Amino acid sequence: METKIHFYHVNDLHSHFENWPKIRRYLNQKKKEHQALGESVFLFDIGDFLDRVHPLTEATDGYANIMLMNQVQYDAVTIGNNEGIGNSKNILNNLYRDANFPIVLANMVDNEDDRIPGWAKPYIIKTTNEGVRVGIIGLTAPLYLSYIPNGWLPKESFEVLPQLLTELRTQTDVIVLLSHMGIIEDEHMAEMYEDIDVIIGAHTHHVLPQGRKIEGTLLTGGGKWGTYIGHTTITLNQNIPINLETELITCETLPVEPIDASEVQSYLTKGKQLLKAKEIADM
């Protein structure tokens, strides 16, 4: 019997909220539609959702971004370098305190105890209604010169993936990697690790309208700034993947609501107000 699993993702929004109301509506609507049809669906963010270039992000140390993410029923997210090195260690350790979604991050540890931070997990396993076990791993760009002074020790993919894939191989039917590593590393991982079914990519803002297959692994990429939403479908027969497809939905073509413009403007206004109210020096 054939079954399908749908994956939707956003990557590298960088606090460009212009399309956020449309993205939020689309993701939540698609989740409801698939669930109503009895189909399995997962929503992901692949990092760099926040960027301090936006006043609201700067004023709230990214906390406002997490509250916006809470408006979508995300099944898992990973962090990008903007979350990881755009914040101090203390801010990052508190950033996700009220998040209603899990953070998967397998290749960054606290350099004091060599452990993954308490707000993250190296992977999670989700089981669909049809009994398909989906393993979801998260990796972020290992930018040593920036992470180490911040109190973190990043690791390369080859330092963590072999062990993780060995653990997941017997526990899952599908393995999805949320990768904020960039297209070159995604291609390398696809060549090296045949157990990975899909690499949902980010960081280098690459655009892969129909994806790219390497050694049986499907690579995806949805650009930047909320221009696209990625939609990947895995078809399985008796819990074995037999077909993988991906597409990009252009957010510019999504329906607009009258309130969208004022909502986007309110984020800018609120951010400026908060920044103006902050005392930074007494001359």
Rg, rounded, reads: 19 Å
The CATH architecture designation is 4-Layer Sandwich
Q: CATH fold name, please?
A: Purple Acid Phosphatase, chain A, domain 2
Largest sheet report: 6 strands, mixed
What is the arithmetic mean of pLDDT?
96
What are the segments in which pLDDT stays under 50 over at least 5 consecutive residues? none
Helical proportion? Answer: 25-40%
Span between termini? 73 Å
Question: Hey, roughly how much beta strand do the residues contain?
Answer: 25-35%
**Oligomeric category:** single chain
What is the element string, with H for helices and E for strands?
Answer: EHEHHEHHEEEHEHEHEEEEEH
The CATH superfamily title: Metallo-dependent phosphatases
How many β-strand stretches?
13
Return the domain count. 1
Describe it for me?
The chain has 283 residues and is α/β, with parallel strands linked by helices. The chain has a single domain, classed as Purple Acid Phosphatase, chain A, domain 2. Helices cover 31% and strands 27% of the residues. The protein has nine helices and 13 strands. The chain has helices at 20-36, 55-60, 63-69, 81-85, 89-95, 144-147, 157-169, 183-192, 260-277; strands at 2-10, 40-45, 76-77, 108-110, 123-127, 133-140, 152-154, 174-180, 198-201, 212-214, 217-221, 228-237, 240-250. Strands 5-6-8-9-11-10 form a six-stranded mixed beta sheet, covered by helices on one side. Strands 3-2-1-12-13 form a five-stranded mixed beta sheet, covered by helices on one side. The chain has a two-stranded antiparallel sheet with strand order 4-7. Strand 8, helix 8 (183-192) and strand 9 (198-201) form a beta-alpha-beta unit. The termini are far apart. The mean pLDDT is 96.
